[in-house]
Write a structure and sequence with these properties.
It contains five helices and seven strands; from the N terminus they run E-E-E-E-H-E-E-H-H-H-E-H. The chain has one domain. It starts with a strand and ends with a helix. The strands form two sheets. Strands 4-3-2-1-7 form a five-stranded antiparallel beta sheet. It has a two-stranded antiparallel ribbon with strand order 5-6. Helix content is 32%, strand content 25%. By secondary structure, the protein is of the alpha+beta class.
């Protein structure tokens, strides 16, 4: 049986480079291990992969950017994960994520309840990563 994940939100254009997928990325939460994935296309291409919430809060992506034949490294400023969550419409998740990163036991039920309270009572999308990608395309135009 495939693991089920929760769609936190969609960050439409969070990346400072022109990648293969220009639609931004999905933020996906795994309640089984309290990890968050950033998914940039039909397979998890995002260079950062899957991280614990503690790792996301200190993560500063680095990108190789080529402009007019010149390469340079771009390093994101601290607070990148918080900015991505804001852009993706899941700022509601940040207080819970900080608590989890500090070792608190927050249930998936509590997370889904907070989601619903910020989304007119709608349930938090839950499915396989593949199905969440399909949902993002069909319902949100990703």
């Amino acid at each position: 049986m495939e693991n089920l994940h929760y769609l936190l939100g969609i960050a439409w254009h969070p990346l400072p480079y022109e990648g293969a997928y220009k639609n931004g990325c999905l933020l996906v939460y795994s309640g089984d291990d309290n990890k968050v994935s950033l998914i940039e296309g039909p397979s998890p291409h995002y260079p950062s992969g899957v991280k614990s919430l503690r790792e996301w809060f200190s993560f500063q992506p680095r990108y190789l950017v080529t402009n007019e034949g010149k390469n340079r490294i771009v390093v994101e400023a601290p607070g990148w994960f918080e900015r991505i969550c804001q852009e993706a419409g899941c700022a509601w998740f940040l207080p819970l994520a900080k608590q989890i990163a500090e070792g608190a036991a927050i249930s998936t039920e509590e997370i889904t309840e907070v989601y619903a309270s910020h989304h007119q009572g709608r349930p938090m999308p839950r499915a396989s990563v593949h199905k969440l990608i399909e949902l993002a395309k069909a319902e949100y135009g990703w």
